[in-house]
Amino acid sequence: QGQLVESGGGLVQPGGSLRLSCVASGSGFSFGVMAWYRQAPGKQRELVAAITSGGTTNLADSAQDRFTISMDNRKNTAYLQMNSLKPEDTAVYYCGATRRRYTSARLAYSLYEYWGQGTQVTVSS
Description:
The structure is a single chain. By secondary structure, the chain is mainly β. The protein has strands at residues 3-7, 10-12, 18-25, 33-39, 46-52, 57-59, 67-72, 77-82, 91-98, 114-115, 119-123. Strands 2, 4, 5, 6, 9, 10 and 11 form a seven-stranded mixed β-sheet that branches. Strands 1-3-8-7 form a four-stranded antiparallel β-sheet, with no helix packed on it.
């Protein structure tokens, strides 16, 4: 049974950067799509970015021009580079993945089969 483990979260000042990593361990298979979601206190979980194994990406409006998602297929690892961070980016960031192959990175939340435990990102001065 595969597991996802996120890392790279922490406390950063507004305007700073963080790089999140999501590693799949013990899976023995590759993922077709990996994604980052986030959930702030009192709010619903929302998509930040998703990427297919073919490199097609989908970024939320809030992430455009600031965040970059990438995926290392050989390592079954996804990354989220976050620049120009704002206080409203504060949330727990979750990694999701599916084994199924899609040409589009615009997937419904329910299609992700695997989830990590999340990593806290806090943007504050």
